[in-house]
Input
Amino acid sequence: MNEKTCRVCGTPFKGRANRLYCSPACKWQAFAQRHRRNGVDAHPLPVVACGQCGQDFQPKNSRAHFCSNRCRQAAYRARRLEWQRRTLGRRPTTKGK
Output
């Protein structure tokens, strides 16, 4: 085991030749520094329009289509209702009402 210095906090530690950080906390801190610059995402996503209400929003991941959970649920319900109308030929009724 070699005496090494942590790349994040500068603490000396013993470890294998390929180890760079003294602890998991320093490892995650280095990861965060690599992926963020000055408190801003290193790879920001473009602003997109919500698929339900049309409001512009900043997505948190590249697969986001809706600005909120409320819009996501409303879009799902609209798709489901349209599918039921096409499949059943009428608006579905609920049992017991």
